[in-house]
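Renewal narrative, Specific Aim 1. Our central claim is that a sequence can be written position by position from structural information alone. The example that follows is taken directly from our test logs and has not been curated for this report. It begins with the structure tokens describing the chain, in the order in which they were read.
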């Protein structure tokens, strides 16, 4: 579960942000764990890097959001920071603490939800998984997310990835077993496609990264169903 801290000294705005996050949960089917602080010094005191996202008001009575962000960054380089402010010029300073972005007060739901979506997307991209793939002379570590597709070539499989393509001994079926639970599906008997890399489907072709792959008639229904299920899950 994604953990969010809200640091806001205006109780009304703090409650509005809580309500917006709950609305986002209902809209996209996600769940967040929320913790609220009423000033920057409260979150900085005995801070531990347990949050994924921190929403920080810039102007607060005892410790402003920028000072709090600087203190947090000293012990937590990974947490995503989003500033909540009524003055855009303060938000520009956010680059010094690697803030993702800012939302201007009064906070509209749409702008807030866009920033939250961006933060969730960044968290998802960090959660990479890897395969140890046998190659001639050893093993190669491959990010699953970087794979476009796998192609059967006799007694070997060619992997097409964002870092180029290479050959690995084995069968497409064995790779399919290793990738069970990941968003991969066959568009024909010889191709195993990463659904996250599919950008378009037209007639009997799938656009997978820079590649155009044929969708066979026997696999078309199951491939499109898998793609539809994946896209539906991504949008939640």
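The sequence written for that structure reads:
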């Amino acid at each position: 579960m994604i953990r969010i801290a809200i640091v806001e000294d205006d109780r009304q705005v703090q409650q509005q942000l809580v309500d917006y996050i709950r609305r986002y949960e209902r809209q996209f089917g996600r769940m967040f764990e929320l913790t609220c602080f009423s000033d920057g010094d409260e979150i900085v005191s005995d801070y531990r890097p347990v949050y994924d996202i921190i929403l920080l008001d810039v102007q607060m009575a005892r410790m402003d959001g920028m000072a709090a962000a600087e203190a947090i960054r000293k012990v937590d380089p990974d947490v995503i920071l989003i500033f909540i402010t009524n003055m855009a010029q303060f938000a520009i300073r956010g680059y010094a603490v690697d803030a993702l972005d800012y939302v201007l007060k009064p906070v509209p739901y749409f702008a807030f939800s866009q920033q939250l979506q961006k933060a969730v997307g960044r968290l998802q991209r960090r959660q990479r998984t890897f395969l140890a793939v046998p190659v001639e002379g050893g093993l190669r570590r491959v990010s699953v997310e970087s794979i476009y597709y796998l192609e059967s070539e006799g007694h070997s499989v060619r992997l097409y990835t964002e870092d180029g393509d290479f050959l690995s001994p084995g069968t497409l079926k064995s790779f399919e077993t290793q990738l069970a639970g990941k968003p991969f599906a066959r568009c024909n008997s010889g191709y195993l496609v990463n659904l996250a890399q599919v950008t378009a489907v037209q007639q009997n072709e799938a656009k997978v990264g820079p590649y155009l792959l044929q969708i066979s008639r026997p696999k078309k229904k199951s491939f499109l169903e898998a793609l539809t299920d994946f896209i539906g899950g991504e949008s939640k």
